[in-house]
Amino acid sequence: MGPKATPDQTDHVVARLEEAGVDARVSRGREATVIGAIGDRELLATLPVEGYPGVEQVVPIVKPYRLVARELAADPTVIEVDGRRVGDSYFGLIAGPCSVETREQTLETARVVAAAGGTMLRGGAFKPRTSPYTFQGLGIEALELLKEAKAETGLPIVTELMDPRHVDEVVEAADVIQIGARNSQNFLLLSEVGRAEKPVLLKRGLSTSVEELLMAAEYVAKEGNDRIILCERGMKTFETSTRFTLDLGAVAVLKKETHLPVIVDPSHAAGRRDLVLPLARAAAAVGADGIIVETHPQPEQALSDAAQQIPTSEFAAFAAEVGAVVALMGKEIG
Amino acid sequence: MGPKATPDQTDHVVARLEEAGVDARVSRGREATVIGAIGDRELLATLPVEGYPGVEQVVPIVKPYRLVARELAADPTVIEVDGRRVGDSYFGLIAGPCSVETREQTLETARVVAAAGGTMLRGGAFKPRTSPYTFQGLGIEALELLKEAKAETGLPIVTELMDPRHVDEVVEAADVIQIGARNSQNFLLLSEVGRAEKPVLLKRGLSTSVEELLMAAEYVAKEGNDRIILCERGMKTFETSTRFTLDLGAVAVLKKETHLPVIVDPSHAAGRRDLVLPLARAAAAVGADGIIVETHPQPEQALSDAAQQIPTSEFAAFAAEVGAVVALMGKEIG
Amino acid sequence: MGPKATPDQTDHVVARLEEAGVDARVSRGREATVIGAIGDRELLATLPVEGYPGVEQVVPIVKPYRLVARELAADPTVIEVDGRRVGDSYFGLIAGPCSVETREQTLETARVVAAAGGTMLRGGAFKPRTSPYTFQGLGIEALELLKEAKAETGLPIVTELMDPRHVDEVVEAADVIQIGARNSQNFLLLSEVGRAEKPVLLKRGLSTSVEELLMAAEYVAKEGNDRIILCERGMKTFETSTRFTLDLGAVAVLKKETHLPVIVDPSHAAGRRDLVLPLARAAAAVGADGIIVETHPQPEQALSDAAQQIPTSEFAAFAAEVGAVVALMGKEIG
Amino acid sequence: MGPKATPDQTDHVVARLEEAGVDARVSRGREATVIGAIGDRELLATLPVEGYPGVEQVVPIVKPYRLVARELAADPTVIEVDGRRVGDSYFGLIAGPCSVETREQTLETARVVAAAGGTMLRGGAFKPRTSPYTFQGLGIEALELLKEAKAETGLPIVTELMDPRHVDEVVEAADVIQIGARNSQNFLLLSEVGRAEKPVLLKRGLSTSVEELLMAAEYVAKEGNDRIILCERGMKTFETSTRFTLDLGAVAVLKKETHLPVIVDPSHAAGRRDLVLPLARAAAAVGADGIIVETHPQPEQALSDAAQQIPTSEFAAFAAEVGAVVALMGKEIG
Question: What percent of chain B has pLDDT above 90?
Fold first, then answer.
């Protein structure tokens, strides 16, 4: 209660809490009165306590997520797809082009990723682009190319779902459904993939906090799908020397807060090719469960994110460098 | 070009630009070489120049938006709906509950807003909520209640569209379709409403820059719908004493950059009732074309945003206070 | 206590708190144990509770500042200097050049500010500049020019102190000692001016929170000097269309949290001349107690901040526009 | 030039540039006119071009720092102190208590750091604290204890200088003078240590950009002292699950932009002990030239930063874990 709250206001809050079946305990200090509310988390979340007269501050003590919390699972979750694994002692090396552009580009990239021991193939069919005047992805056609790449290399496919009206097509083609950063709090899309039978790769939004990311995962888990991979990909901050600010501290926190695997996207955070390797190594060293990186046979011809894609000719060397850190951390590429 | 770029790399960039039909001019300084590329804006946007070897920095000189740019229109755009107006000399006073909860709450609020001279009624049918365990809105049922409120009071309805599968229902019920902050860069939803016959109220995302907001509006306009109201509602920053940081500087910039009306949502930025009036007055004084605020007959019973809704009993006084600043700025409530 | 805290760890915390003379009350919920610590605020601040085993979170309920808190004073503080006033119903219109450059520039500006009814004259003698290769201010020589301007116009002088070794000279020449944004948490400088006999104008740092700003003011007040004017001047955020993000929400919060006057610097926040008037009006409308703006006889010749200074030829019109909002808010220029 | 700039305004800008001895070249596009100004970097920095009428945007192409730029030095700089080295292939492991509190605490910590192969001892004598009511450091007395610790262990001393009036004492006692985050843009302190004969450890401020940090280092170097170690220690952002957001991308950028060594402070960024090791490993893996961490014999008794100090009993294990990543990166602890 604020410093000017009256005893009546305190009583009013207590009465409302008790009406709702919550146990309320009052501590009166010289400078403030504190009401401790003990009750069911979900019930408490629905009470508009911060709107009661005299209330200055509401401090949630119990975390608002449950299904994704570390305490819920005895062991860290491992996401297994076609024998490939991400989580616990398995480090996912997910790579591929930013966008699927042509059949040749897609197959060539897939072969390189497979040869270097990659875990999965990424590739965008539907591209969220800041400008309406730039390439928006090949759409459904790209899904077919990705399926062909999988048929040839055996690599499971990670691709983004943007539109709830495409759920069926994407779920059918993808092995892992990606929810992009700009949809990180698109709650209806989260609920949709919560009902899908495929694992979900959930990217952190550009201004999504760690707690909000866990709540977004909770949306998915609440619908029954707990095969979720979280992905840090950089925050919007004042710093412009990288495209986004990669928050590896958030990865370290997530590893303590949740049983879900946590991977890192160094490509989008860096925005430039020469920073991808150092950030990928740092991701492995901080304890991430994998990385998702962009690689392209001819980056300078790429229709999106040209500056940050690694040439496929350099991908094997890249994978080896990252792999050395993975091994040092006692993990193997999954 | 970077300091280590070779003449060959410079020639390569020039050749690629010329191939694409762009005029390229090279200035060689002692410490850097600058290539000026002059050509069609949309064409330039598609060239992956930043991926060419030796390129250090790409600096767009021409703005990436066009249809929404101030220069395009002789006069500021006025959005007119059922005789109510927002833009230029008309200040939109848009108010209503955060969520539509009951028939009585909705009608009572609508009457108060109408009596105080409000321009439109806002009310959420579909609510994006951080937690899956909280109230998610009444959905389609709420749209019926809003239509009833309009029938009684004549106030046009502003309500949010979240799901592209609800376009028909929302477009039918709403007079102005709101795109919420978390969908500010949901480009497919933007394209959808770009094809609708109703005006769009587009909120700035929590970490959307002014330029990105204008690009989002460009998505809508590109599909043919240029009846767009932009809305500043607060940014995610390090400051926690307000729920979000209201960026009135962005409003001042937008008024110079675009012909579209720009309004402000002080309620969501503040997150607390006692700051709504000062921020609403500041919005009017900075030159905004309107505000959108939350009001509720019994805020402490509200199912969402209880802390920030103004009691309807205080709404007329609030409207009068804001109206005084509006009048001083030479405008009238639309 | 965290979810894995043992009863022993809880007992240990309680024992340590009681040893220190703090009253500790334990509430055990199903999902967490909360220890309420009630005692002297300053004592509590010195206990390293967050370092005790098992402690997950320390939530301060009582605010950490005291002397500057709203509750301490019956009425808002008014800073009076030579008959000019800032605070409560007096709006301070403080204006002058970014830097003192020449005698003529300084006197001409002072005359214009005085003629337009300005409250005080600002002018930088020592300039903190990002680059060591740019103009650093005239130093001591500038102080003499400011004194001359005061002698002629009667306007009290606001100028910045950067170096604790210049305290005597600046205190002697200045009527109000400015602490700049980059020194907002230079605690030793704050203590120095806390021992001075002159009022202090304390700018908020680029990433200083409202609470940290109040703690900085507490440093000054603790040494005995409670004549402090707080100043919001823009935050460092991801948005680049303005030089800094002016946080008028913080002004509204500060007006509720402290009895000290709160003013706004729209010039540094905007970084461009054409936004200064809208932001100044918004500052007056949000309830600020004044503004501090930059004006120069020939801005394009200015040695610093050329882009944002208002030409002195336009200053009287500017002052009149702002004055109209001040009057509407029931205040007068002090 | 902005879209409405007149030919006269363009001519005016060109004339002013040429007057100043700068070569100006005009490119007229359909949508904008661009003036390329080629001349001495320091001269350009002093021209207030952004203030000339019609100018819309000034885009610096050449970087504003010179002495600290990567191009200036053939090889990365190695800072050597008493046979200990930081930079290039030497990784600095700098450790010690947050604050020097007692003789016993200081000596015990120094012995542990030396035994684990640490490079230098850190310890705060003067502490910048947000609250005036908390421990402010032992001051001069602490410097004596640090000298004693050095005499016994041979570890060079890193300690912070806050007050230009303490330059002599701190320079005499310290082997490396630390400039703290809150003084990162205290330009006069930077100039002071630029004239000192000791290396400088310069921390990045909480909202200092990479470019601003390099400009701050340029202040030091301009006075003649180019023995500078840069230190990333976390930014102020919206994320609160760590105390600050550690920006390892900035470290990767700095390694490309400057010849100076770049180290990381994981302790202050994390704010909690259990995140220090993962972040230290990530720092080594991203290519940092060292870390500076806090360790204390009994963290829960610490007078500052209790939550983040590593117990000295765990320091050897910590050093070994970090050392493994250092070795993998082809470096040795210096």
Answer: 71
State the ipTM, two decimals.
0.91
* Min Cα–Cα distance to chain A from C134, Å: 23
Q: How far apart are CA A25 and CA A314, in angstroms?
A: 63
Q: Sort D224 into a burial class: Cβ within 10 Å, 0-12 / 13-18 / 19+.
A: exposed
Which of A221-225, B306-310, C130-134, C225-229 is predicted with the least confidence, judged by mean pLDDT? C130-134
Q: Where are the beta strands (DSSP E) in C84-156?
A: 84-86, 90-96, 120-122
Torsion sign (Cα): D255, D256, D257, D259: positive
D56, D208, D238: best mutation site toward chain B, by most B Cβ within 10 Å? D238
Is the Cβ pair A186, B183 closer than 8 Å?
yes
Residues in chain D: 334
pTM score, whole prediction: 0.92
Amino acid identity, position B6: T
- Other beta carbons within 10 angstroms of residue B277's beta carbon come to 21
Identify all chain C residues contacting B322, using CB atoms and an 8 Å cutoff. none
Pairwise CB contact (< 8 Å): B51 & A309: yes
**For residue B236, which residues of chain A lie inside 8 Å, CB to CB?**
207, 236
DSSP string, A262-310: EEE-HHHHH-SGGGHHHHHHHHHHHT-SEEEEEEESSGGG-SS-TTTPE
Higher pLDDT, C45 or D306: D306
Asked if C230 has any chain B CB less than 8 Å from its own CB, the reply is no
Q: With CA atoms as reference, report the closest residue to B263 among B212, B334, B208.
A: B334
CA nearest neighbour of B299 among B155, B101, B157: B101
Which of chain B's residues have a Cβ under 8 Å away from the Cβ of C328? 324-325, 328
CA distance B142 to B120: 16
How far apart are alpha carbons D1 and C331 in whole angstroms? Answer: 41
Q: Are A27 and C41 a contacting pair at CB < 8 A?
A: no
> Is it the case that residue D264 has pLDDT exceeding 90?
yes
Question: Given CB atoms, is C285 within the 8 Å cutoff of chain A?
Answer: no
- What is the mean predicted confidence (pLDDT) over D290-301? 94
Interface residue B206 vs chain A (CB under 8 A) = yes
**Tokens linked to B256:** 């110079």
User: D168 phi and psi, to 5 degrees?
Assistant: -60, -45
Closest CA to B204 of B194, B189, B214: B214
Mean pLDDT for the stretch of residues D298-323: 92
Q: Are A181 and A157 in contact (CB under 8 A)?
A: no
Closest chain C CA to residue D185 = C182
Six-digit token string for D115: 């035994």
Shortest CA distance from B271: residue in chain C: C249
Given a contact cutoff of 8 angstroms between Cβ atoms, the answer to whether C131 and C303 are in contact is: no
In single-letter form, the type of residue at position B165 comes to R
Looking from the CA of A190 toward its CB, the CA atoms found within 13 Å total 31
Mean pLDDT of B271-296: 97
Which mean pLDDT values do the consecutive 10-residue runs of chain C (334 residues) have? 82 84 77 75 70 76 85 93 97 96 97 98 90 86 96 97 92 96 92 96 97 96 96 97 97 97 97 96 98 94 86 98 98 97
What are the φ/ψ torsions at residue B325 (nearest 5 degrees)? -70, -40
Q: Do B133 and A64 touch (CB under 8 A)?
A: yes
What is the distance between the alpha carbons of residues D334 and B101, in angstroms, rounded to a whole number? 66
Amino acid letter for position B70: R
Question: Residue D70's closest chain B neighbor by CA?
Answer: B3
Q: β-strands C176-179, C200-203: how paired? A: parallel
Q: Which residues neighbour B248 within 8 Å (Cβ) at sequence distance 6 or greater?
A: B232, B264, B282, B283, B286, B288, C246, C248, C278, C279, C282
| Residue A147 three-state SS | helix
